[in-house]
Structures are given as structure tokens and as C-alpha cells.
Design goal:
This protein is an alpha/beta fold and 301 residues long. The chain is built from nine helices and twelve strands.
């Protein structure tokens, strides 16, 4: 077993296909395939399950991958410390629902570890993909919420995938709308107040049930519905169409539109927002720093 083989394994797991990993590593596909087979034979383990769409890390491969990442990270730290090698690319990946504080914390991590070069990824994505990304170790950290409506299903999924949920904060639902919205001068809103206006939500693809909805109270019937894929589009529609969405109330204007405000919603429900990570997986220093910065924004909101 070599460090190069471990790097190959990590890259294949991240890219999802042998061909994409080979391009990233600047080697041929047969060479990469052979290197993986040699490691599997040496360690008596099946690291990947081959499918028509690519490769998926196996159950036993997930544990092996967690150790491989730790070894590569520690090797990088040793080289930085004793060989003055600073031009390697540290890797850190996060998958999250669409929360501005998650972006703020990510920015702060990059500023703290402002290396010569780095390879960081922030995925604002669908709920089911967040769980998949962390369970397959494509991301070290995931961020999502539970409520009384979806908690049972989400927690079962996390348990099934050996994931741990760690609470960041609990929030009452808030309505996000523009400063020019007809209801923007209200100090509190009710569901019936919002009925005439378009409801904006994040599309969840084939998992578009309310269990995976990013918005709390998604089971309520609404006459006007618009689904989007990204936060900027949602905010633009909120401004242009007097639309609204319902979330935690946590909003930071440094990285978001100055025109969006949050108003408390009068409703007996809550959002329990937290991080998810792989059970038994030792987080990198970047992940530890990211969690610290998440807590900073939560505690100082």
C-alpha cells in the first residue's frame, strides 16, 4: 500500500467514475484501474461497487476511505511542518441546504487556511444528496434540518447510513420576503396572510416529498407555487414577484441581498438545524474549524 494508491482511492470516490478520476490524476484509465485492483487484492477488500453510471464506494470501502483521508491529511501536515512543502492542495467539502450562515462559515475557513492553493467544495444541494454525499464521504460535513413532521424519516435515514446528527440550534419558523413586500411592515405573520402571494421552495428532484423539503410547513396547500434550485434565484423571485419562503430566520446580509428580511411566523412548529457526519470518521482540521465557525454565527446572530 502506498500514499499514491490512497490518493487514487480518494479521487475516485470524489469523482464517481474511473474516467473522471484518471483525468484529474493525469494517468490512464487502465493504470488507475490496475492500481485500485492491486490495493483491493493486497488489503483483501472490495473498495468500489461498479455500476453502469460509474463506481460507488462499498460499505467496507467507506471505512477504508475514512482512514485513507486521515493518512493523506496527516502526511500533508508533516510535509508542511518538516519539509516546508506548502504547495499541495488541501481538500475540504461541505454539502448543505441553502443557509447563508453555512456560506459565511465556509468563507471564514478559507480565509483562516489561506494556502498557496486549495481544493474546497461547497454544495448547496438537495436534502437526499446531502445525506448521500456525507455517507459516501464526498463531503465531510452536511447541514440540514428536522422538524416534528420529517424527523422520524430523516433520523432513520441517518441511522441507516451510519451518520451522526449534531444540533446547531433550534429556530421558530420565519417568513423570508423582500423589503418592498406588502407585508414587510408586519412584526409577525400568519399562514393566512401569505395566501395571495407565490410560495417559493427549493426543488428536491425525485425526492420531492415533504419529508425532504427544505422548507418547514411544506405540507400546507398553496395556490401559487414556484420551485427553484438556487438561493439567488429564490431571492430574485421574492423581490420581483412578492414571493416568500419559510425558513429559520437566520440571514446574513454580507453574502445575501440587502432587500430580504425575515419576519416571525405565528405557528407552533420548530426547525432543529444541525450538522451530519460519518460515525467514527475523524474530521480534518478544516472541518473542525468549519463547525467552530458555524457555532460562532449561530451564537452571535
Amino acid at each position: 500500500m502506498t500514499l499514491l494508491q490512497l490518493k487514487y482511492i480518494v479521487t475516485v470516490a470524489e469523482k464517481g467514475t474511473i474516467s473522471e478520476a484518471a483525468k484529474e490524476l493525469f494517468i490512464s484509465q487502465p493504470s488507475l484501474t490496475n492500481a485500485i485492483k492491486e490495493l483491493e487484492k493486497e488489503m483483501n477488500i472490495c473498495l468500489f461497487n461498479r455500476t453502469n453510471k460509474g463506481v460507488v464506494i462499498s460499505n467496507e470501502g467507506e471505512e477504508f476511505l475514512s482512514y485513507a483521508r486521515q493518512i493523506l491529511q496527516q502526511t500533508h501536515l508533516l510535509e508542511e511542518r518538516y519539509l516546508n512543502v506548502s504547495k499541495q492542495s488541501p481538500i475540504f467539502q461541505v454539502s448543505t441546504q441553502h443557509y447563508s450562515f453555512a456560506v459565511n462559515a465556509f468563507v471564514d475557513v478559507i480565509k483562516e487556511f489561506d494556502s498557496y492553493q486549495y481544493d474546497f467544495t461547497l454544495r448547496e444541494t438537495q436534502t437526499h444528496e446531502i445525506i448521500d454525499d456525507v455517507s459516501q464521504l464526498k463531503s465531510e460535513i452536511g447541514i440540514l434540518y428536522t422538524s416534528s413532521l420529517n424527523e422520524n424519516i430523516i433520523m432513520k435515514l441517518l441511522h441507516k447510513n451510519d451518520l451522526i446528527f449534531e444540533e446547531l440550534f433550534v429556530a421558530k419558523p420565519h417568513v423570508f420576503l423582500s423589503q418592498t413586500h406588502p407585508l414587510s411592515n408586519r412584526t409577525v405573520l400568519r399562514i393566512e396572510d401569505l395566501e395571495p402571494f407565490p410560495y417559493l421552495s427549493f426543488e428536491q428532484g425525485m425526492y420531492n416529498s415533504f419529508y425532504f423539503s427544505e422548507e418547514i410547513l411544506s405540507t400546507i396547500d398553496r395556490k401559487k407555487n414556484i420551485k427553484v434550485r438556487d438561493r439567488a434565484t429564490l431571492f430574485n423571485l421574492a423581490i420581483g414577484l412578492d414571493g416568500y419562503t419559510i425558513s429559520s430566520g437566520m440571514i446574513h446580509h454580507e453574502l445575501n441581498s440587502q432587500n430580504i428580511i425575515a419576519i416571525p411566523l405565528e405557528y407552533n412548529e420548530h426547525m432543529r438545524i444541525g450538522t451530519i457526519r460519518k460515525k467514527g470518521f475523524q474530521l480534518s482540521r478544516y472541518a473542525h474549524s468549519y463547525v467552530e465557525k458555524l457555532n460562532y454565527y449561530v451564537n452571535n446572530h
